[in-house]
């Protein structure tokens, strides 16, 4: 029975990490059960300080004609994405559609350090899959403005069958510390802190960081180091350029650049993830297709729809593949 419960827990974690289009996390999914069992350091912050660090700033909807909004939009200058961009993906496992994931860039949020990118995402299981497990997860991420897209806060709410869990994560770059509050159905709240090195991204931020670096380089960089914090650990991530390729999605064919991301934890490299990513070879660097090998098969994430942001509406039309 214990083995069966452990397997269900492990698969739930893998399914979630895959379907959130937290695309880098796909590569880590095969080791998430091990990571979840890792020894954590209890937070040394007082309860009041801990709660204050984890508070999300209020989301003030800005008037598009206001000077404040124009100032906020400067956050996206020279970036391959901007406010209003939406990515929708279809996730398949062993060739069968398991659901869809969607990520939208919202208006930036004012923080103590200036403007921060705000991304929201939603994951839903396919209709047929709901007979096995109904999944409806949501995420919200804040990242520093500019090209580094360093993590500020990360919120995730998981509703997967009878499983209910909320995590609120604060990244304190000054202290080099991650503070995490976990609320789980029928469990006590837990608080923990973990070390956090400069340059580390969260799983969602790593994808957007790659887009920024690819858009800023011509020719594409041969290798990028992308440390990633997920599953309560910091993983060493290395993205290597595999070359150019043409990729057909639906009835459309695209010129792309292909990268392979290897993630490892520990000196022996016994915990390892491996994914390939196809990005459009233009200034948008849209992630078109992701392929990941996991312990129990393979996962594919295919772009179903891309909606341009405010700054690109007059330049690009909506991409829809009707998968």
What does this structure look like?
With 323 residues, this protein is an alpha+beta fold. The protein has one domain. It is built from six helices and 17 strands. It has helices at residues 2-19, 23-28, 32-36, 47-54, 67-73, 203-215; strands at 86-93, 96-111, 114-125, 136-144, 151-160, 163-172, 177-184, 190-195, 201-202, 223-225, 228-230, 233-249, 252-265, 271-280, 287-294, 297-307, 319-320. The protein has a 17-stranded mixed beta sheet that branches. A hairpin with a 2-residue loop joins strand 5 and strand 6 (163-172). The chain is globular and about 50 Å long.
Brief summary of the model shown:
The protein is of the alpha+beta class and 323 residues long. It is built from 6 helices and 17 strands. It has a 17-stranded mixed sheet that branches.
- Range of strand content: over 45%
- Number of self-contained structural domains: 1
Query: Largest sheet, described in full?
Result: 17 strands, mixed
According to DSSP, the number of beta strands is: 17
Mean pLDDT across all amino acids: 77
Distance between the termini: 39 Å
Helix and strand pattern:
HHHHHEEEEEEEEEHEEEEEEEE
Number of helices: 6
The coarse silhouette is globular
Radius of gyration: 19 Å
Q: Structural class, judged by helices and strands?
A: alpha+beta
Helicity, in percent? Answer: 10-25%
Poorly predicted tracts of residues:
1-47, 267-271
């Amino acid at each position: 029975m214990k083995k069966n419960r452990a397997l269900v827990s492990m698969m739930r974690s893998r399914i979630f990490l895959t379907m959130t289009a937290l695309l880098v996390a796909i590569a880590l999914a095969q080791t998430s059960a091990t990571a979840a069992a890792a020894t954590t350091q209890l937070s040394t912050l007082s309860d009041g300080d801990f709660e204050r660090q984890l508070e999300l700033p209020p989301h003030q909807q800005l008037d598009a004609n206001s000077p404040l909004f124009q100032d906020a939009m400067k956050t996206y200058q020279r970036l391959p994405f901007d406010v209003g961009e939406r990515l929708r993906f279809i996730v398949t496992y062993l060739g069968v559609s398991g659901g869809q994931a969607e990520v939208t860039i919202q208006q930036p949020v004012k923080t103590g350090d200036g403007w921060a990118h705000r991304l929201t995402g939603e994951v839903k299981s396919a209709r047929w899959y709901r007979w096995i497990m109904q999944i409806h997860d949501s995420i919200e991420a804040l990242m520093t403005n500019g090209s580094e897209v360093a993590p500020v806060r990360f919120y995730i709410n998981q509703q997967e069958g009878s499983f209910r869990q909320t995590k609120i994560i604060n990244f304190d770059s000054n202290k080099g510390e991650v503070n995490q509050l976990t609320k789980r159905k029928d469990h006590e709240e837990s608080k923990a802190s973990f070390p956090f090195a400069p340059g580390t991204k969260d799983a969602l931020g790593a994808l957007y960081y790659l887009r920024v670096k690819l858009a800023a380089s011509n020719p594409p960089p041969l290798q990028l180091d992308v440390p990633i914090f997920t599953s309560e650990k910091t993983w060493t991530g290395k993205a290597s350029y595999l070359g150019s390729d043409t990729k057909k999605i639906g009835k459309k064919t695209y010129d792309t650049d292909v990268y392979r991301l290897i993630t490892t934890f520990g000196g022996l490299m016994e915990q390892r993830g491996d994914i390939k990513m196809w990005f459009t070879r233009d200034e948008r660097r849209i992630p078109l297709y992701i392929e990941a090998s996991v312990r129990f098969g393979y996962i594919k994430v295919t772009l179903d729809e891309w909606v341009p942001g405010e700054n690109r509406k007059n330049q690009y039309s909506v991409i829809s593949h009707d998968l």
